[in-house]
Amino acid sequence: MWFTSRRKRDAAEPSGEAPSSSSPRSSQPHGYSFRISSSSDPYTQPQSSPCNRALASAITAAVTSSSSGRDLGNGCGSGCAGGGFLSWIFSARAARADEGKPAGGNWDAHGLPVTRTPVPLARLDGRKRYKVSELNFLDRRARDSASAAEKNPLFDEMSTLRPGGVYTRKQLLGELQTMNSSGMFQQVSLQGKPQPDGTLALTVTYAETVWPGAPKRLKCVNVGLMAPPGAGPDEDMTEREKMDYFRREDRDYVQRIRNAKPCILPESVRQEVLGIVKKQGKLTAGVLGRIRDHVEKWYHDEGFVFAQVQNFGGLDTDEVVCEVVEGDITKVEYQFQDNLNNIVEGNTHIAVIDRELPQQLQPGYIYNVGAAKQALKHINALGLFSNIEVSHRPDEAKEGGLVVEIKLKEQKPKSAEVTTEWSIVPAHQGRPTLASIQPGGTISFEHRNISGFNRSLVGSVTSSNLLNPNDDLSFKLEYVHPYLDGVEDRSKNRTFKASRFNARKLSPVFVAGPNMDEAPPIWVDRVGFKATITESFTRQSKFIYGLVVEEITTRDQDYNICTHGSRVLPSGALSMDGPPTTFSGTGVDQMAFLQANITRDNTEFVNGATVGDRFIFQLDQGLGIGSKNPFFNRHQLSVTKFINLNKQDKGAGKPPPAVLAVHGRYAGCVGDLPSYDAFAIGGPHSVRGYGMGELGASRNLLEIATELRVPITVKNRQTQVYAFAEHGTDLGSSKDVKGNPTEFFRRAGNGSSYGLGVKLGTVRAEYAVDHNAGTGAFFLRFGERF
User: Cα separation of 598 and 616, whole Å?
Assistant: First the structure.
């Protein structure tokens, strides 16, 4: 005999969905959706296998499949418990669905004398439809009667009988036959007691099957991709032929279990299962139900949402066999769609998408909802698709297999955009006014997914005066070539980038200290070429190395070449004998250097808070090529650790943890050092509470910082308040910078700050105290400090 588990699940399968975005630019977040779903009719094939039906049942979160089993007539007692395989039918709903059921409001009075004596089903009229007003269960051994709503877990899952339901005699006999042939009971009977209102009160009297002894071991096997057992003997077989059939089935079952692959259930859970049996002291159908629930709960909690216990075997031996359909992935299919959901031929090569799938979502592995979400995130990170959908269905071509379907809508490969802006500056009495009526802005274009291999060409031109861009023009043109070693080679993930750039920034080296008038600004223009190779170790850790060739020009606020820094004298005149702005002293430098950057990032989000550690090391090595043959070694090391103070675990609905951030940064330069490349101290990403470079410009620096972040809830939304303290020092190296800009602009060379802040979305509002001056100020910052 064998035992099959089929039942309605306690909870619907998990699903998730993320918003869609119609933006055509890859730099914007792209919409995607995540759906745990199945085909609308998983039973379109009438001959679908039990394994496939089990998977379809799990996918639709309502098990309605039917399972073959041996017809043992009036049930099986202890004498039938030989080394066979027990079939336990929890729900015969699907098997009897074709018989139909009368509507609940259309029923007939029983027409029987109202007595205290129950009436056997044989006395009921086959033409009538009887309404069941009560449903009670009586355990022959316990002599404990309980109402249907209180204590009948076995019957809840197996029988379709419900108080208030309407049934024919044929249906009631069918229910009784299902109970008798399930192997759950040694004895079971069904009788009705006529009620004065014309309804019946049904009583199910049963004796639960008990298998002798208690098993000492639990063997769990995955039978998802194995051929199902036989459908039972034919009705026209003789008794001898049936016995021969059962012997063959027993031998086949032993071989089947021997060839089955082990399931992924950990040993700790198996010991918990054995503890359930040991606590009961015997093995019954009810105990097997609790074992099944315990095993399936572990699978579903771990994200294996389609795993389902199908059978139990070896119930009269020391080792119980638990057969599980775990949800093996047999195939991954991709489908490209247009905006009207029509199937089209995609431009993207499948290998580009396939390499983004985690290993757990590849054929041969068990479907895991966490892996599906991870695949969705990785594919979306490509920036090639406006919508992504992950779904799944039973594989009708392979017994018990699961097909993962990925539906994609590609973005347009070419895009262009023009943005305009006007700068607002404070005027008389601090009133805001336009800096100029002439608009500034950016013209950008992008050609993505060239040849279907995710290669891209991106360009942008920016000016503060679009009407006369020659006054102030910066540009960048970048070509990105991923999969440098071939898209099929997954052992390496290297990306080549080449860019031509022209950038202009205000130098923080030539700024006045707090005790002097504001110094005229110095702008640093960089025009050049950069080629790098990025080697990714993980999603967050990478190694970048390449060559930079550039020309650097320093200019004053009138866009004239400036050779020296200047300051305002007490007389109001400008002192032009400040530090040289370039290494050559002419205001224009050319140089070439090698650059390398290695990042080891183990941070993660725990309920919205960053936890973990991050190490960044950057090295610039001059080649002695360019103006006055500059040769140098410039290096920086940044270490940041985010400590989970209250050890908060991840989980939906759980609050973020309190976090202590500890940060340190060291930078130094050996060899030639142009002033514009000196390390500036002070600013929102150096020492808060000071302006950019307000503390000094040095050859070496050391920064330390700590920040305590505490989560709070504001109007049902999580945010955080924080307190921080920071310190930065030039380590006495400011004098080693040519012209000593720190001393010339009367800066301290070191300083500390502390303060409080609150995070409002991406904005940080904070109050910081300048420890050198003992004064504080409010600041609004965007993004994270570390």
Answer: 6
Distance of CA 124 to the CA centre of its chain: 58
C-beta separation of 753 from 706 below 8 A: no
Report the run of H or E that residue 781 belongs to, with start and end.
strand 775-782
DSSP string, 643-701: EETT-PPP-TTPPPPPEEEEEEEEEEEEE---GGGSEEE-STTSSTTS-TTSSEEESSE
Tell me the domains of the chain and their CATH numbers.
119-208 (3.10.20.310), 211-325 (no CATH), 328-410 (3.10.20.310), 482-782 (2.40.160.50)
Over the range 673-700, which residues count as b (16 or more CB within 10 Å of their CB) and which as e? bbbbbbbbbbbbebbbbbebbbbbbbbb
Q: Do the beta carbons of residue 771 and residue 777 sit within 8 Å? A: no
CA–CA distance from 676 to each of 492, 559, 590, 671 (Å)? Answer: 37, 17, 13, 15
Please, which residues have CB within 8 angstroms of residue 216's CB and are 6 or more apart in sequence?
274, 318, 319
By the 8 A CB rule, do 1 and 85 touch?
yes
Alpha-carbon distances, residue 644 vs 43, 600, 612, 641, 714 (angstroms): 49, 19, 8, 10, 22
Taking residues 391-399, report their average pLDDT. 87
Stretch 427-444: mean pLDDT, rounded? 72
Measure Cα distances from 440 to 419, 434, 501, 557 in Å.
8, 12, 19, 17
Is residue 773 classed as helix, strand or coil in its secondary structure?
A: coil
Identity at 512, one-letter amino acid code: A
Query: H or E element: which one contains 296?
Result: helix 285-301
Residue 410 and residue 386 in contact, taking contact as beta carbons nearer than 8 Å: yes
Q: Tell me the C-alpha to C-alpha distance, in Å, between residue 309 and each of 60, 71, 331, 364.
A: 16, 21, 23, 19
The per-residue pLDDT for 654 is: 85
Q: What whole-number distance in Å separates Cα of residue 397 and Cα of residue 403?
A: 10
CB 568 within 8 A of CB 574: yes
Segment 185-228, tens digit of pLDDT: 778 888 999 999 999 999 888 888 888 777 888 889 998 888 77
Tens of pLDDT, residue by residue over 488-504, are: 988 889 999 999 999 99
**CA distances for 317 relative to 209, 217, 332, angstroms:** 15, 9, 40
Contacts of 209 (CB under 8 A, 6+ apart): 76, 77, 78, 183, 184, 185, 186, 284, 285
Task: Return the bridge partners of 409, or none.
Answer: 387
How sure is the predictor about 642, in pLDDT bands with cuts at 50, 70 and 90? very high
Tokens of 38: 């199945």
Contact 582, 555 (CB under 8 A): no
d(CA 393, CA 411): 27
- State phi, psi for 515 to the nearest 5 degrees: -105, 20
Nearest Cα to 158, choosing from 138, 136, 143, 179? 179
In this structure, what token pair is assigned to residue 551?
């020309």
Mean pLDDT of the chain: 82
pTM of the model: 0.73
Contact call for residues 693 and 506 (beta carbons, < 8 A): no
CB neighbours of 542 closer than 8 A, spacing ≥ 6?
534, 535, 536, 598, 599
Residue 50 tokens read as: 């039990």
Give 236's contacts (C-beta < 8 A, 6+ positions apart).
none
Structural contact between residues 522 and 565, judged by C-beta atoms closer than 8 angstroms: yes
Nearest to 483 by CA among 359, 348, 318, 578: 348
Identify the band that residue 84 occupies on the pLDDT scale cut at 50, 70 and 90. very low
User: Alpha-carbon distance 64 to 157, whole Å?
Assistant: 11
State the Cα–Cα distance between residues 137 and 163, nearest whole angstrom. Answer: 12
Pairing, β 33-34 against β 385-395: parallel
Digit-coded pLDDT (tens) for 105-150: 589 998 888 888 888 888 899 899 999 998 888 877 765 554 443 4
| SS3 state at 443 | strand
